[in-house]
Write a structure and sequence with these properties.
Layout lengths: L4 E2 H7 L5 H9 L3 E3 L2 E2 L6 E2 L5 E3 L2 E2 L7 E6 L28 E2 L7 E8 L2 H8 L7 E8 L4 H9 L1 E3 L2 E3 L3 E8 L4 E8 L6 H8 L4 E9 L2 E2 L8 E3 L2 H14 L2
Parallel strand pairs: 9-15
Antiparallel strand pairs: 1-4, 2-3, 2-5, 5-6, 7-9, 7-17, 8-9, 10-14, 10-15, 11-12, 13-14, 15-16
Helix pairs in contact: 1-2
Length: 245
């Protein structure tokens, strides 16, 4: 894997400016690399290059890793143009420019990881790395064994092939015609679990991601955060590496 990154990305990641603003600064000749003015937006730099913006060296942030128990009704983003609550609103004390690894839908709660380490995030999100994501859904209706088998084979929804690694009914309430169903996914497409259940005519009432790999929110309340322990970060890296095809 190349250590070279686009100059505007490096500036943005250091917290100096947004990526778009960083591009403006480059074009305006306000950025130097190893003492030379660079105005070319395609320029890539290595971690050893000395980058200065308006004469001030950029400081590289130390990597940080957090587990967040995302509540329902929160956007998995760092900002929202409609003014809705976003996940980073729960991290007012964190100075680093963290972002969520992947996303959980607005109405879905549970395990969400955040970091400022782009390589770590890419490693976990890459489709080749098969990390189990365990979801528990409360459904309006009780899916049949055959319907759950179709999840494992994969179903076509809106031109997408959506698939679960595992699917089982945990419990049912015949009177209320509801069920608690566990699904394990390797991918995480937009509203995937809800779309899969809608496709079989069993809509989801509530949805929670209970596990990401081996990480759980056990003992936490919705809205709680905690730093990942160093051994957890190491294990997640190893898990992704082990699962590569």
């Amino acid at each position: 894997m190349s250590d070279l990154e686009r100059l505007q990305k490096v500036i943005a990641h250091a917290g100096v400016a947004s990526r778009r603003k960083a591009e403006d600064l480059i074009v305006q000749g306000k950025v130097t690399v190893n003492g030379k003015v660079v105005k070319e937006l395609g320029t890539k730099v290595s971690p050893n290059d000395k980058v200065e913006v308006e004469g001030v060296p950029i400081a590289k942030e130390p990597p940080v890793y957090y587990l967040f128990y995302k509540p329902r009704g929160v956007i998995s983003s760092v900002k929202d143009d409609k003014g809705r609550k976003v996940v980073t609103d729960y991290f007012p004390e964190v100075e680093e420019r963290i972002f969520p690894i992947g996303r959980l839908d607005y109405d879905t709660s549970g395990v969400l990881l955040l970091t400022n380490d782009g390589d770590f995030a890419n490693l976990l999100m890459h489709p080749s790395y098969q990390i189990d994501k365990v979801y528990v859904a409360k459904t309006k209706g009780i899916p049949s064994t055959e319907q759950l088998k179709s999840f494992k084979k994969g179903i076509n929804v809106d031109g997408d092939r959506l698939k679960a690694v595992h699917a089982k009914v945990i419990s049912t309430d015949q009177k209320k015609n509801t069920a608690i169903v566990q699904l394990i996914l390797h991918e995480g497409k937009n509203r995937q679990v809800r779309k899969m259940f809608e496709a079989i005519g069993v809509p989801v009432d509530k949805l929670k991601r209970e596990k990401y790999g081996f990480i759980t929110v056990e003992g936490m309340n919705a809205g709680d955060i905690r730093p990942l322990k160093p051994h957890e970060v190491k294990q997640l890296r190893e898990l992704a590496d082990k699962n590569v095809k």
